[in-house]
Amino acid sequence: MEMLSLAFSIAFIALSTFVLLSRRRSGRGANLPPGSYGWPIMGETIEFLFGKPENFVGDRMNKYSPDIFKTKILGEKTAVICGPNGHKFLFANEHKYFTAFRPHPMQHLFRSYKAAAAAAPAPAPPPQTQVTDETKAIRQPGFLKPEALMRFLPKMDLITQQQLQTHFAGGESVVKVHPLAKTITLTIACHFFLGINNPDRIARLVKYFDDVTVGMHCIMLNIPGTIFYRANKAANAIRKELIAVIKEKKAAMASGAPLQDILSHMVVATDPSGRSMPEPEIADKIMGLLTAGYSTVATTMTFLMKYVGLNPEIYEKVRAEQMEIAGGKKKKEGELLEWEDMGKMKYTWNVICETMRMVPPLQGTFRDVLTEFTYAGYTIPKGWKVYWTVSTTNTNPNYFKNPETFNPSRYDEGEAPPPYTYVPFGGGPRMCPGKEYARLAILAFVHNVVKNYKWEVVDPNEKVEGDMMPEPQKGLPIRLCRL
């Protein structure tokens, strides 16, 4: 009888331990943040995607907590960490509590080589090569360091000039800014990352990248007519195009072509075992890099044209600064921009910063929780996701006086926003590695536009569409006048 009682006791203890561990793993029983998981299965994904993400976050900050709240979006239990203290905590604890996480639609669109490797008879790549972030491919050879960008800056300038001459006709006309900005940024990115200049190929890629960008944060419903179906189809088309470029690059390199772009270095790179990266994996990584250097830069260019066009006094200040730079050239007319010129564009950079505050080119990103942690008195379990967003500070009057007003002068010395309130490029170890690349591309664009054109925004009240990546509903038509 005693043995039977002992057996029952052991079984009870084991069962209790299992239940407690299960609850701990799922987050039950923990002091979770306030909030709601929303509907079964879908959670609050619909509200997150089809409302505006900044409204989604702001409404819940007001309802639950200004520091943190829980939700369920894109299939994941998620803690949204808010405000400047949240930014500081996240940036200071990268790799300790968090690692990068791509929502499932992005994993599917940018990680096709995993499935291909698993299906192939050859051994799958080692785990460390499978999870390598593509930013490593551009950090290691130093492509985004100042000395590399310094050499590429004249090409950025020249490409911008050529695109403006092609798309901005002489005299007065009405043109759409957003399609042009996308073509310029993708042309620059194809030069920089791939070493190619094929206008027809780039024109094909623009439409594909538009569909992929929209599909990165969507409901994964892969049937004709859905956002994800179009994105998946576009990703396959881009992958096919990029694999063709890779084969051309390999042939050129075999003939003695120099390693002058990121793609060339990816082609020759090997892991510790001496294994080269498969072509589909290279294509997926390049697709990720092109996407990152495409939509966000084009978005900032577009909305800068809107706000500068709506504020003639700001246009005049920007033009005066750029004309002084142009007039200071000592060599023959038509000399391209130099590194020193970019340091003189202080007011213009303030205008760009204010544009990104008013319309963040990317609303936010996700992190995977590596180990359980506590923040603001609440516990976030391992395996949850954290959503980081700039929108909890950008329009807060506690940090930005008259936040609805477009005011580039707020970034002048003495008026700069408090720490961790303005972080368009993130911070900490995962600060955007392409920050300087984006800065140069946008400054080169502004320099060439204001030197040669004046414009009027056709519809000042044009709606802004998009979820995570905003865009003007009609493409931002402007009435252009060549000077």
UniProtKB/TrEMBL annotation:
Compartments reported by the entry: Membrane
Topology within the bilayer: Single-pass membrane protein
Pfam hit, one: p450
Binding site for heme: 432
Cofactor: heme
The UniProt record lists the keyword tRNA processing: no
Main location class: membrane
A cellular-component GO term for this protein: membrane
Record keywords, A-Z: Heme, Iron, Membrane, Metal-binding, Monooxygenase, Oxidoreductase, Transmembrane, Transmembrane helix
Protein name: Cytochrome P450
InterPro entries (alphabetical): Cyt_P450, Cyt_P450_CS, Cyt_P450_E_grp-I, Cyt_P450_sf
GO molecular function per UniProt: heme binding; iron ion binding; monooxygenase activity; oxidoreductase activity, acting on paired donors, with incorporation or reduction of molecular oxygen, reduced flavin or flavoprotein as one donor, and incorporation of one atom of oxygen
Family: Belongs to the cytochrome P450 family.
